[in-house]
Fold this sequence. Notes:
Keywords: DNA damage, DNA repair. This is DNA-3-methyladenine glycosylase family protein. InterPro entries: Alkylbase_DNA_Glycosylase/TA, DNA_glycosylase. It comes from Streptomyces roseoviridis. The protein has 327 residues and is an alpha+beta fold. The chain has three domains: 5-110; 141-254, Hypothetical protein, domain 2 (Endonuclease III, domain 1, Orthogonal Bundle), CATH 1.10.340; 261-321, no CATH class. 38% of the residues lie in helices and 17% in strands. A six-stranded antiparallel beta sheet has the order 1-2-6-5-4-3. A two-stranded antiparallel sheet has the order 7-8. Strand 5 (73-82) and strand 6 form a beta hairpin. Helix 4 crosses helix 15, helix 5 packs antiparallel against helix 9 and helix 13 (268-277) crosses helix 14 (284-291). It is globular.
Amino acid sequence: MAGRFAPRTPTTxxxxxxxxxxxPRATLVLERDPAHDLDLGLTLGPLRRGPADPTFRATADxxxxxxxxxxxxxxxxxxxxxxxxxxxxxxxxxxxxxxEGLPALLxxxxxxxxxxxxxxxxxxxxxxxxxxxxxxTGLVLESLIPSILEQKVTTHEAxxxxxxxxxxxxxxxxxxxPDGMYVMPxxxxxxxxxxxxxxxxxxxxxxxxxxxxxxRVAARLxxxxxxxxAEARERLxxxxxxxxxxxxxxxxxxxxxxxxxxxxxxxLPGIVGWALAGDRTADDAAMLELLAPYEGQxxxxxxxxxxxxxxxxxxxxxxxxxxxxxx
Length: 327
């Protein structure tokens, strides 16, 4: 897909939010090869942390909105596909940075043609989901922190913690973003959140301490977005509390890494085993063996399996949500 986007006359201007504060605004139109589909929902969906994520919104007109903490500051991005073009607008000091990274965000660095299906299920899903591209945000902390929050808890718990902390310590998204959108806190703010506020957000001491350690070396971690995936994961895993599961979940998003398959997941090995071999008891080793024919594209293969909807019938009880706030 590289090179299939071409910019068409970007413009920059200033708008006024609330009649008081000037908010920088920039617009960009990217020409898109109509022979290659782009599904915004499939491509950007992994960046959404739950249906009420304050940093992400999909609206009825087909637009996707993202509020991000960029190296240049807070920014809001609105993107939609119309005809043969991608239209994007951005607001805030981080707006130009977001527009500069838009092609990578939409998968311009991704190459779906490199994926060769070797199972019927994957061939069918690959064809049905032809608009899938692997996103590359170029931002580490915005994927790392919610991934840490998701360690060893239910997604419901993790999404609630992310939502509450971003709303309390973040800032309203610049520009005319939908109501309730926020930019996540900066690294210094994450590092200064007091222990009782982590407790109120239902985040245990292990996860909160990992986030604080990561925030204190945020600049070094953000450098990982420009590294080869294996080196990037090694950089992240130097932080105590960040292991292979968390590093993979982060680098898949920040670096657009097509081969970084998640290990250590409670459900993924069984799903992959069931889809490719009818084995719901598969562990990480069995999963990696099944995905070996897709070396270089194992993350894409796993994404397609999840999108296929072929999951083993549930037998074991779901993980019980916990609530440390009552302790």
